[in-house]
Amino acid sequence: MTTNPLLADQNGVNPDGTNQNGAANGSSKHWDIFCLVVDNYGDIGVTWRLAKQLANEHKIKVNLWVDDLNSFAHILPELTPSRAKQSFNGVTIYKWDETNLAPFTPGSVLVEAFACELPNAVKDKLNQHKQTFGTQPVWINLEYLCAEDWVEGCHALPSMQSNGLQKWFYFPGFTTKTGGLICESNLLETCEQWQSDASNKLALLNEFGITGIKANDYFISLFSYENNTISALLNHYASKPEQATHVLVPQGRSVASVEQYLQAECGLTYATLTLGKPVTIGQITLHLLPMTNQESYDKLLWSCDLNIVRGEDSFLRAQWAQRPFIWHIYPQDEDYHLVKLNAFLAHYCKDWPQDVAEHYVELVNGFNVYNAQQVACELQAFDDQLEFIEQMAKIWPQSAINDTDLVSRLVQFVKSR
Ligand SMILES: Cc1cn([C@H]2C[C@H](O)[C@@H](COP(=O)(O)OP(=O)(O)O[C@H]3O[C@@H](C)[C@H](O)[C@@H](O)[C@H]3O)O2)c(=O)[nH]c1=O
């Protein structure tokens, strides 16, 4: 990568954290990001967004090392899981396994996503580099997103490793004292433009093979984990007079819960949701969708009136869609996820009238503690307060981002080390 001197700051530091000589002190200027897929798509989803934004907006050469390319291919269908090295969106993607680490050389930054343990071969090269040149890449442990208060106290703390190398904790978050939230620079405007013209939504649905619908029908995307309250949700919209609702279900873990509903409603012992074969029950039509890349998934969120999301990345993208959403948070031991859920809701609803906030909090909690009765009851209140909740969803992103997004903060953080 050639360095554009116009991109260097007053101290001669480039956006990738190196100085204008680039490869000084034996360092190459690139960034490495290591991602271990624990399960599902969130770990790779977040790191893929991070890598793309670093490459596209900050012109940084990024190597993304991923252990499970099969999972990655679900959200990047163009990827060939058997290939050891390939490039998309300006990012070089490496299959991370012990036999394929030879191309690794220390760059200016190394991001270890979600405390994934770096392989010994990589640590050895970091050590050698330190001994030879006296420097090391800025080594970042990127943590999971969390809205709890303690995050501010832990963000940006150094951690000296036993081998003498320094690592930094980087915590994403919703306040200025945290690492911020991943959000591309023109994302909110692009979303608003998309939403201002209903033909965009119809064209997207057409691409999914969904035709013959009215733009002013109600649209729900459903991308959760298995959840028995989905029946209550579907029942609610199926029996809503004068409103046709389309429920768009990407292939995955929600489907089993939708099929349970179908079986109960249709009185069948076996009922499936199949691609290209929508099922209508009362006022709702259920559509199964294939998984797409992240850009199309974002557009799906922008197109819907209500988004049911999960994990970390779809949760954040639903916020950037500026539409109401219900978050099915990733379940954790001892129900710790409920603490995290309510820490977020406290931020999200902080400027809402108390009664509206209470009902919304009850709705989302009901969905997460699998209380179907609570969900059914709170959806009535949700409908009554929908206009207000929609307005708040539009205002929220600016307040969530605070001064700037995660990638811009991270680049600044690296410069200051
Ligand atoms: C439905 C759909 C999703 N996606 C993407 C959006 C997201 O990047 C990704 C889904 O990731 P998430 O929403 O984060 O949920 P998730 O449940 O898939 O992932 C995670 O949740 C974390 C909290 C856990 O700690 C992780 O271990 C991980 O499992 O899939 C597409 O690209 N195309 C699609 O069609």
From TrEMBL:
Stored Pfam families: EarP (PF10093)
Region Disordered, residue ranges: 1-23
Keywords for the protein's UniProt record, in alphabetical order: Elongation factor, Glycosyltransferase, Protein biosynthesis, Transferase
Molecular function as annotated in GO: protein-arginine rhamnosyltransferase activity; translation elongation factor activity
Catalytic reaction(s) noted: dTDP-beta-L-rhamnose + L-arginyl-[protein] = N(omega)-(alpha-L-rhamnosyl)-L-arginyl-[protein] + dTDP + H(+)
Family per similarity comment: Belongs to the glycosyltransferase 104 family.
Protein name, UniProt field: Protein-arginine rhamnosyltransferase
Organism: Shewanella maritima
